[in-house]
Design goal:
Elements (H helix, E strand, L loop, with lengths): L3 H22 L2 H13 L10 H4 L1 E8 L2 E8 L4 H6 L11 E4 L6 E4 L5 E4 L1 E4 L7 H26 L2
Antiparallel strand pairs: 1-2, 3-6, 4-5
Helix pairs in contact: 1-5, 2-5
Length: about 160
């Protein structure tokens, strides 16, 4: 005969013990350092002032199913950098850039000439997937930590 009350009680103790072991294994500061390193080592990111890197945040969120590691970025152009824009993004089309405040747009061409135009069709930005790659890298690096935490929790039962 199975004693369901006893099995339920032992299971609840195991879950509580596992949660404690995971809290020990997943220190927020260490996970943040891993994610920060993964984001900053991405060579595809073009960052002139560093705002894309500075605004990247890592959070460990608890929900009913467990914990999630969430990487986010609050800069306006983070989604375009991560997922791509224009021909390379979700819309798969060039987009028009027009002068708003002045009469013309001003930029330097690839050959070094100064260019003045009223409007230009921009092809878009190729995706770097910096947030996805950083999350994937962090996941691979913390997997051994989680395995140790689970073994420690299981060894007590």
């Amino acid at each position: 005969m199975f004693n369901l009350k006893q099995i339920r009680s032992v299971h609840q103790h195991f879950q509580a013990n596992l949660a404690r072991e995971l809290d020990k294994a997943l220190k927020v500061e260490q996970v943040q350092q891993l994610a920060w390193r993964a984001i900053t080592q991405n060579r595809d990111i073009v960052s002139r002032k560093g705002n894309l890197l500075k605004r990247s945040k890592v959070k460990i969120i608890r929900n009913a199913k467990g914990k999630l590691i969430k990487l986010s970025n609050s800069s306006k152009y983070a989604a375009a950098q991560d997922l791509g824009s224009g021909l390379y993004g979700p819309k798969r089309a060039k987009y028009l850039i027009q002068a708003k405040n002045g009469k013309a747009l001003h930029f330097t061409s690839k050959t070094g000439k100064e260019v003045f135009v009223r409007r230009v069709w921009h092809p878009g930005v190729k995706p770097t997937h910096f947030l996805y790659n950083a999350a994937n890298s962090v996941g691979r690096q913390i997997k051994p930590w989680l395995e140790v935490a689970m073994k420690n929790a299981a060894s007590k039962f």
